[in-house]
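User: Run a structure prediction on this.
Assistant: Running it now.
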Amino acid sequence: MTDIEIAQSVQLKKITEIAKSIGIKEDDLDLYGKYKAKIDPAKVTGKNGKLILVTAMTPTPAGEGKTTTTVGLADGLKEIGKKVVVALREPSLGPVFGVKGGAAGGGWAQVVPMEDINLHFTGDFHAISAATNLLAAMLDNHIQQGNALNIDVRKIVWKRVVDMNDRQLRFIVNGLGGKANGTPREDGFDITVASETMAIFCLATSIKDLKERLSKIIVAYTYDNKPVTCGDLNAQGAMTALLKEALKPNLVQTLGGTPALVHGGPFANIAHGCNSVLATKTALKLADYTVTEAGFGADLGAEKFLDIKCRLADLKPDAVVMVATVRALKMHGGVAKTDLNTENLDALKLGLPNLLRHVSNIKNVYKLPVVVAVNAFPTDTQAELDLVIKECKALGVNVKLSTVWAQGGKGGVELAKEVVSLCEQPNDFTFSYDSCLSIKDKINAIVTKIYGGSGVNYSSSALNEIENLTQLGFGNLPICVAKTQYSFSDNPTLLGAPSDFVVEVKKVKVSAGAGFIVVLTGDIMTMPGLPKVPTAEKIDVTDEGKIIGLF
């Protein structure tokens, strides 16, 4: 059966029953039908439980099953009698209709109702898009109505957004058609999940904090190069009004009946790639174990989870799960993407250095306990699975086989037991850099300590932007690197565990409201495009209203 067929075959529990299992009363829920609800974090109290991060080795384009492993691990913890809540990101419509299809886990390790979660869900992303575009409209209207703030239209940095892969909108010219239709200028769209509004949404701790962060957004610069903010346009109140209900975390369930908070959803290659702080902190108070994930490989999602989210939200992980797959190891061992389903033991061994570098970073840079979860795929042979586990153990790497895709929580029991053991170990969690370092020193620390590179090259515009941001007082902010997810480097074709490479920084900008500096490297885009054959072509609705083809 396909993922959607599996999800549709299970009779879900009413969300009121799921809420009751973690001590939330029906009166404290905002119901969205029978199986979805929003909860108010202010009404949740309790002692924090353990925090478990699920990350992965450098992935193939189809992904290595981090969400599947996260959900299966949580159901595995439930199987062994632990009180657990999953904290996940909401899927973006971009990848849902693009390459990867559904993004709610897979097989028998899914969050449900998966159709709703993958599509409009509770409308959070629409609210984020609307708030972002409202600010853009108010900015352009201010210019149209006399430009009292002296904004240089050549220095507008705020973009409109749409939650869809649409390369046609990357670079546009708007405001055409005469004076009544605005000021002609070059512009462009970002995908919603790459917007600063999304980042702020995921890092805000309350409505008050949300409004304060929104007010700090830099939207443009004046003719004498002074920043113009959302607060200068007095847009933060209206943006907060659009986001007020969306800010409440969404409660759903796994196929195993485990409560799940699914909230927020920035990409990890072009944003900070973690679910909302509010959802994570709420989950920690509701359960003894919170299992969360960070997007793409550990060089992206985990680095940003640890260096940005944990720093800004004062979180400390208790254990890390590193997802590895036979196919990803073979890809990094030199096997073409078209041949990943063919057994190749030699390539498996050659691909191990990629996994080992990620494991080393977690253990030796961040000082956290880690276990490798080998996520089994139906195409894996027993010889391949045995070899990965054998080689990891021979190198002193803690490893467990995960069969949650096929078996759900029962396939995650051994991994769950190991994670519980790791959570009992004290750790000396530390960041990969000190925030008081200069912007360039922080970037260099990430490149050399996490990526394994030898240094950084900057474009002349990037150097000017770094100098300007330092003078404006933003030099002490953490760094959010935007780069390819397919390599430790900024070159997607440089597989394995490369060294002595130089990362090319093309642009640097500040997300003042989110509280970090964005560093764009290589050819990274903040508006993806659809592939030659998008997943959208396979999605349909039957005459009876049943969605099919959604992964």
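The first strand starts at residue 29 and ends at 31.
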